[in-house]
Design brief:
The complex is a heterodimer of chains A (166) and B (562). Chain A has 166 residues and is of the alpha+beta class. Chain A is built from six helices and seven strands, in the order ααββαββαββαβα. In chain B, a hairpin with a 2-residue loop joins β12 (231-237) and β13 (240-246). Classes of the chains: A alpha+beta (166), B alpha+beta (562). The complex binds iron/sulfur cluster (SF4) (4 copies). One iron/sulfur cluster is lined by residues 94, 97-98, 101, 103-104, 107, 109-110, 146, 199-200 of chain B.
């Protein structure tokens, strides 16, 4: 309701307008036009949606040369608005000095915001293209390192996308 | 008195002070790394540069004495520029280690980078690399790359700990902190350098990588390692103590605490040996039972002895509240005269700085609240003899492992009844008929009196089964605030333990007494009303720094005149 616009009341409509016929015709025209355009719907689950690299699927940990990149700094855990991430650090003889002896994401808490990916100083946690998450209990929804680790190969598209948009 | 002007405000200050001290006294912070109130001035970090009128160049506030009429500017453009330059130099070779650095979150260099630095780096050459995992001693690790050469650790070791083993070698950006050949940093106070170090160059081997600082809650408490009673912060995550750090109290421990207190005192709290619940002996073995059953059993068993056959051993490890209620229940409710406690003094174990030979935190308080034999009662030697000879048949022991002493260990089997308050499965507890699992120093409210008569507060940092961090006013970390039962990170183990004084009160009331106190604070109120050394004290005016008997009196006097 703009301050300049005249308020139209039902009693002000013409008979032609009151019949709704022009509106119905407009709608039908749109429907018929769409019928002959290419379709975007997918016959899920027979057909699978393949997201673009910019898609924010479930967060995963990047594994490079057999080890996780993560240094267990806990910044993702701190920034996560949903408190989904728990990291426990420990010492490793590798050059990076620390690594996550435990890394858990509670996928019931995660809201796919991507803040963890954004804050990570090591590009060790990234949003993947996986969107199918099914669990039958709260416990099952907590993903440990076994489910989180993905190789750089598997995450190639996303890592490339991040590089381009740095 | 000297009249000086700092940032346009005029102050009257002691002419002996340096500019940084005078400013600090008047609430003006001059940023600094190497200066520390308890160490000699070295003036090498250059962070405290200030502008002083009539001086041609900026001067360092830590080594410039104030003078009458001096005009100091700490926030002028010249000063800000100089600080930015100092920060830039410090950061040139500093590694980008914050993500893996234990200091992050409590790092002076990090904080100052936000406050006083330009926020970006112009340096794109290679940084100088230096040794990273160097063990300086049993408890301290060094990362030389992070060191900003403030020399605080060197000065502490030389001047306070009196173990001059640290030094710099090399020059310029290649300076390396190191120990002299064939020496290591292993004095009894070595870990104080960890807090002294303004960066993460020195870290604790014990706490290394255990937790980020922002994940823990911190509670003001005191150390129970000896009768000094050093003020501490108790750092807790998931209801578990991860570290203790010293808390400043000029009247007790200044900025320091000893390594032993820091590393050992909290082990019992987290121990695997902690009791799960009260226990009573059934058919020769101790079994876990509920509180009601344990208390009922204690009451009925105690009734079956003559007053003179019962003795009570209080504990200098327990709080004033525990000991006060204990001696009161023993003498007034149970009616025995045989009440005393065991001293734990290790001759020659004390030193000049903090460590005391008396290894209990509360021996003076134990005496002050009335733990002593009543007229004609037995003292500790008498009680031991009584047990050996069979005239003492029932013994009630507070939080002390008396069976550590072989004479007690040999005598205890003679008893018909042994009731013990213990937090871990101690030697004494293994002899007992009834074990009442008690809260440790980190799980309860209470006070302790140190060797010099300073009454100081303990505050609960770890929750027991009957406590709730939020409802009972505990310090809370972010995790504590938001955990739900589905969060693994929110789950923690809570021990079924209770403060000794409260269990004693329940037993006394079941024996027909009418003790009314329901909180430790109320017990302390009663102590303060009845006993002169505690006159005028309460939990509020003890505050975070405690009070001496005399000081508390003068505090209350001041209040009257004010
Ligand atoms: S995507 Fe967002 S909600 Fe999910 S784990 Fe990362 S920061 Fe937390
Ligand atoms: S922010 Fe990155 S490096 Fe730090 S804990 Fe999270 S995943 Fe690991
Ligand atoms: S010392 Fe401070 S600034 Fe340096 S890496 Fe550690 S936290 Fe970061
Ligand atoms: S190790 Fe720390 S305290 Fe010692 S000189 Fe270096 S920065 Fe200073």
């Amino acid at each position: 309701m703009g301050s300049t616009g005249k308020i139209i009341r039902k009693k002000d409509l013409s008979i032609w307008q009151k019949s709704y016929i022009p509106e119905i015709v407009k709608g039908l025209r749109q429907t018929i036009a769409e019928m002959f355009k290419p379709k975007f719907t997918i016959q899920y689950p027979e057909e699978r949606f393949k997201p673009q690299p910019s898609f924010r699927g479930r967060p995963v940990l990047v594994q490079e040369n057999e080890v996780e990149r993560c240094v267990a700094c806990g910044l993702c855990s701190r920034v996560c608005p949903a408190l989904a991430i728990e990291v426990q650090a420990s010492e490793t003889p590798l050059e990076k000095e620390r690594y996550p002896i435990k890394f858990e994401i509670n996928m019931v808490r995660c809201i796919f915001c991507g803040f963890c990916e954004e804050v990570c100083p090591e590009e060790a946690i990234v949003m993947s293209n996986e969107y199918e998450l099914v669990f039958s209990s709260q416990e099952e929804a907590v993903f440990g390192k076994d489910k989180l680790l993905k190789t750089t190969e598997e995450l190639k598209d996303r890592l490339e996308f991040l590089r381009q948009n740095r | 008195m000297a009249k000086i002007t700092i940032n346009g405000k005029i102050f009257d200050v002691d002419p002996e002070l340096t500019v940084i001290q005078a400013a600090a006294q008047n609430g003006i912070e001059i940023p600094h790394f190497c200066w520390h109130p308890k160490l000699t001035v070295s003036g090498n970090c250059r962070m405290c540069l200030v502008e002083i009128e009539k001086m041609p160049k900026l001067a360092i506030a830590c080594s410039t004495r104030v003078a009458d009429g001096m005009i100091v500017k700490t926030e002028s453009d010249r000063v800000i520029k100089a600080r930015q330059a100092v920060m830039e130099f410090l950061l040139i070779n500093h590694p980008l280690d914050c993500p893996i650095c234990d200091e992050a979150g409590e790092c002076k260099l990090q904080d100052y980078s936000y406050k006083y630095s330009v926020g970006y780096s112009r340096f794109d050459e290679n940084k100088v690399h230096k040794p990273k995992r160097v063990r300086l001693g049993p408890n301290v690790m060094l990362d030389v790359e992070r060191c900003i050469m403030c020399s605080r650790c060197i000065r502490f070791s030389d001047e306070i700990a009196k173990q001059p083993v640290l030094t710099f070698t090399q020059r310029g950006t290649h300076v390396v902190l190191t120990t002299f050949p064939d020496t290591q940093l292993d004095n009894k106070y070595s870990m104080n350098v960890i807090e002294l170090c303004p960066v993460g160059a020195l870290t604790s081997t014990d706490f290394r990588f255990a937790s980020r600082v922002w994940e823990m809650s911190s509670t003001d408490s005191i150390c129970v390692g000896c009768s000094r009673g050093c003020n501490t912060h108790v750092w807790v995550r998931k209801n578990e103590i991860l570290r203790l750090t010293p808390r400043f109290n000029e009247a007790v421990n200044s900025y320091w605490m000893c390594d032993s207190g820091r590393l050992n005192t909290f082990r019992t709290v987290n121990s695997q040996e902690r009791l799960h619940s009260p226990m009573i002996r059934k058919d020769g073995v101790l079994v876990d039972v509920g509180w009601d059953e344990a208390i009922a059993r204690a009451v009925s068993d105690l009734k079956s002895f003559k007053k003179s056959e019962i003795a009570g051993i209080a504990s200098a490890f327990a709080t004033n509240e525990d000991n006060y209620v204990f001696q009161k229940v023993m003498k007034e409710v149970i009616g025995t005269k045989n009440v005393d406690y065991v001293q734990h003094v290790e001759d020659d174990a004390g030193d000049e700085l903090l460590i005391r030979a008396d290894k209990t935190p509360n021996s003076l308080g134990t005496r002050q609240v009335g733990v002593r034999p009543a007229e004609g009662g037995l003292d500790i030697t008498g009680i031991l003899k009584g047990i050996e000879e069979g005239s003492i048949r029932a013994l009630y022991v507070l939080e002390d492992d008396i069976a550590e002493d072989p004479r007690f260990a040999a005598a205890l089997p003679n008893l018909q009844l042994l009731i013990v308050h213990a937090s871990v499965n101690s030697k004494t507890a293994r002899f007992a008929d009834i074990v009442l699992s008690c809260s440790t120093f980190a799980e309860k409210n209470g006070t302790m009196t140190n060797f010099a008569g300073r009454v100081q507060r303990l505050r609960p940092a770890v929750a027991t089964l009957e406590q709730d961090r939020a409802k009972d006013g505990f310090a809370m970390s972010r995790w504590d605030k938001f955990a739900s039962q589905n969060d693994r990170w929110g789950r923690s183990v809570k021990k079924d333990a209770r403060p000794t004084w409260r269990v004693l009160t329940a037993i006394a009331n079941a024996l027909g007494a009418k003790l009314k106190c329901t909180t430790a604070e109320e017990v302390f109120k009663e102590i303060a009303e009845k006993l002169p050394p505690f006159k005028g004290m309460n939990y509020i005016n003890l505050g975070s720094q405690g009070a001496n008997a005399n000081a508390a009196e003068s505090v209350s006097k001041q209040k009257v005149t004010a």
